[in-house]
Amino acid sequence: MTLNRRHFLTTSAGLVAATGLGGLGISPAFAQAAAPTYKPEEGASLRLLRWVPFVPGEEAAWLANTKKFTDATGVAVRIDKESWEDVRPKAAVAANIGSGPDMVMSWFDDPQQYPDKLLDLTELGEYLGGAHGGWYPGLEGYAKRDGKFIALPLCAIGNAIVYRDSHMKAAGFNEFPKDTAGFLELCKALQAKGTPAGFPHGKAVGDGNNYAHWLLWSHGGKMVDEAGNVVLNSPETLASVKYAQELYKTFIPGTESWQDVNNNRAFLAGQVSLTANGVSVYYAAIKDPSMKEIAEDMRSVNLPIGPVGESVELHQASTLSVFKHTKYPEAAKAYLQFMYQADNMNSWIEGASAYCCQPLKAFADNPVWTSNPIHAAYAKASGSLRPNGYAGPLGTASAATMADYVLVDMYATAVTGQMSPEDAIAQAERRAQRYYRV
């Protein structure tokens, strides 16, 4: 089908058919609701700030869809890439000074730090949810404030353990342990064999936060209760810190300074036999002939279940926001609407090779999830995601506590011996209370 401006700017029942909504149990009235129409302003151009991709195919698919949008509308879209760690401060500066990129592809509940600086996307968010089977609740929570969409959920970047199967077996384990007690024993055995594990205790936006929150939640701890009261200083949190100390003893030296690139680099260099990462580490291995042995030996599995008795994981969550300072709000909303069309979203998900888990339920049957066994641990990230603000409401406090690495630092100071577990928890509690104060 050839795209042109007239086709793009008119609502189309054909989009409904393209998503296969009839087989998803969506009510016909909801599925056939007319799409909102956004007419780009005369002479509009846009600028998107996004994170540096870890999977080249993901970026290629995003750029291809962007080109299709430009061809259809005449609206040029400039895409600026920044490291994962740099997107957050650059987006915050743009929001506060009212200048810079029109849109941002950001992390977790970052939009909650400056909701008054963002364009209301409720009309588009509600339409997309109705047209594509609904948003996954965990992701949707990151994008809404007071019942309104201040952003659009983009994806969950699945986090799972990757390990060397032969090294696990050489350490005396035929199967990967399903619980935290068995996992610690595996890590001890790997260290004894000279093939240690490694998880980041540094200020890693994704992997550091994912690991720290899993440590806390798997033992039944939480930062705040349902009312937003800080309840971090608990026996459950103490148990999680002491467990982290024992795990840390089995790690390769230096993990307290690791950022998001370090754990996969260490794994691919053969320095560690086990870590947690997105599926990107697998694709980096299979593309390098010198890593053939590692790629064939690599397996993935979800993180072990702790004393809490259920799988509780934080996955990297990304959203798309539009700043109020944009000169071209209609063009920006048209761009977002275009990128979420079924054919475009599916091509992006497939291009990402299981790295980006879909934000809308209608795209759960994308063939990428069953195309390779290593994808299985990542396939349900959007559905299993627990928001970082658990168990309280998402908002400015949860976003600031995450951005300040309160939980990450708590574990880092304890495992490295800078503080006792009790003192590390008490310090983290005080830091969190500054953000959650009434």
Automatic annotation (TrEMBL):
Signal peptide residue numbers: 1-31
Keywords associated with the record: Periplasm, Signal, Transport
Record-linked Pfam families: SBP_bac_8 (PF13416)
PROSITE patterns tied to this protein: TAT
SUPFAM superfamilies named among the record's database cross-references: Periplasmic binding protein-like II
Transmembrane segments: none
Subcellular localization: Periplasm
Family designation: Belongs to the bacterial solute-binding protein 1 family.
Protein name: ABC transporter substrate-binding protein
